[in-house]
Amino acid sequence: MTRTVLFSDLHFGYENFNKPQFDAFLTYLEKEANASRILILGDLFDLWRADVIDSVTFGWPYIDKLRNLNVETHYIVGNHDYHNWLSCQTAARIDFLSLHVGYPWLVIDSVFVIHGDYFDIYALRAKVVQEAIYGVYEAIYHGDKTTVRALEKYFYNPIILLYKWLELYRKKPEQAKADPIAGYLKPFIDIESRQEVNKLEKGVKFLNDHPEIGAQLFVPAYCRPALKAELPRFTRKTTAKKARTSLAKIDTTTPTRNLIATGTPFEMAREISGDDNLKAVIYGHTHRAENKASQHWWNTGCWVEGESTFAEIENGNVHLYRFKDGTKTEISETT
User: What averages of pLDDT result for each successive group of 10 residues across the chain (335 residues)?
Assistant: First the structure.
């Protein structure tokens, strides 16, 4: 019998991490699960809300326990911890804290696994928008805790920050290149290239003009109702009306990741991977567990905000569970 255990979105360093249940889950992994493989599908750490050192220090005892299971373990980085992937590239290694790290997706035994944010980035198609999205990631990562706390509800702050830098670049490019913001833009664009900076500017303008897409990419579903009411206060006057109209389109009730793309996650995975032999797609990111077995995809949910959910693949069959006080309860398919 082979069993793969999959989970995501622990957000080590975030105070709303569901510590008691995950402690019990580790005991389950050690004594009962009999897992032959573990797949961690992103946002293991929370490098947006927590200091990097604090996040890793908090998470290290858990990483150590996972290592001591002596089980093949893969870690697909997410949007809150994708800087670990940058670190792996810089060090020319593919491991982080003894975990085998990958990004943005991985196919194992005909199962496509991904964190989830890349689905949305890919669905936008335009390379210029992808660069702007990573610009927002970097702005969040380098923001102080007060700024990041505000981003729990309002993603717009980094958009304005990038706008200001781009304006400076147009007027005084050498001064802009010396600005601290330039330092954290370097991982994904060549700031010496006017052409690449122009692409970034187009992408930032797109996100500014389509706040509903930005909200889907950066704002947790449970924060979106507040965003609808409050975001226009943080936009420029010329875009406030447009923002209000665009945000009215956001459905704050549906947990499905598939808000931007027209295809199902399974269809998207086949297109992204070019693999027509896929049997299943499993991802996280939305913080809500979903069983869509009839469509060949599952969402592992999260371990924050009182949730504790995970998936298992046993002899080719995917099962989704809610975990509480040492007991797992299967989650049935939702319509």
Answer: 92 94 96 94 92 89 93 94 87 83 94 91 78 87 68 71 92 95 89 93 87 75 67 60 63 56 86 94 92 96 95 96 96 88
- Domain residue extents for the chain: 3-115+277-330, 120-247
Give me the half-sphere count of Cα atoms (radius 13 Å) on the Cβ side of residue 36: 8
Strand-by-strand arrangement of the 297-299 sheet? 105-108, 111-114, 280-283, 297-299, 290-292
Q: pTM score, two decimals?
A: 0.88
Fold of 3-115+277-330: Purple Acid Phosphatase; chain A, domain 2 (3.60.21)
Identity at 152, one-letter amino acid code = E
Beta pairing, strands 290-292 & 297-299: antiparallel
Between CA 217 and CA 58 the distance in angstroms is 27
